Amino acid sequence: MNKKLQDENIDFLFKAVLKLENVEECYNFFEDICTVQELKSIAQRLTVAKLLTEKHVYNHIVKETGASTATISRVNRTLGYGNDGYNLILERLSGES
Fold first, then answer.
1. Level-2 CATH architecture, domain 37-97
2. Domain ranges of the chain
3. Pairwise CA distance, residues 74 & 44, whole Å
4. CA–CA separation, 54 and 49 (whole Å)
5. Under a CB-based contact definition with an 8 Å cutoff, are residues 2 and 83 in contact?
6. What is the 3-class SS of the chain, one letter each residue?
7. Could you read off the pLDDT of 11-60 as tens digits, one per residue?
8. pLDDT, tens digit (0-9, with 9 covering 90-100), for 58-76
9. How far apart are CA 6 and CA 70, in angstroms?
10. Using CA atoms, how far apart are residues 72 and 47, in angstroms rounded to an integer?
11. How far apart are CA 71 and CA 62, in angstroms?
């Protein structure tokens, strides 16, 4: 966890997210709290992370998601050197199938 990022407001946000119980509640909350573009950007980065962990090449990911190579590179760097947040959630999502 990045101690520079942590504060009471972010803690409050994360606690709120943990209270959401289903996809419909997530849509309602995130549509209220994010702009459409912010939400699409977050979703795009998660999809990029999924495709990178599945060993897809950048050209395929660009075509599939519309993400820039800079975004793909940033996500790839986070997968390798971040806090394993992407890996944790992708692992949990893969167990839902």
1. Orthogonal Bundle (1.10)
2. 1-33, 37-97
3. 12
4. 9
5. yes
6. CCCCCCCHHHHHHHHHHHCCCCHHHHHHHHHHHCCHHHHHHHHHHHHHHHHHHCCCCHHHHHHHHCCCHHHHHHHHHHHHHCCCHHHHHHHHHHCCC
7. 999 999 999 999 999 999 999 999 999 999 999 999 999 999 999 999 99
8. 999 999 999 999 999 999 9
9. 26
10. 10
11. 10
The helix-helix angle for 36-53 and 85-94 (nearest 10°) equals 80
Return the amino acid letter for 28.
N
Whether 67 and 48 have beta carbons less than 8 Å apart is answered as yes
Amino acid letter, 76 = N
Q: How far apart are CA 90 and CA 29, in angstroms?
A: 22
Pair of tokens at residue 65: 């998601």
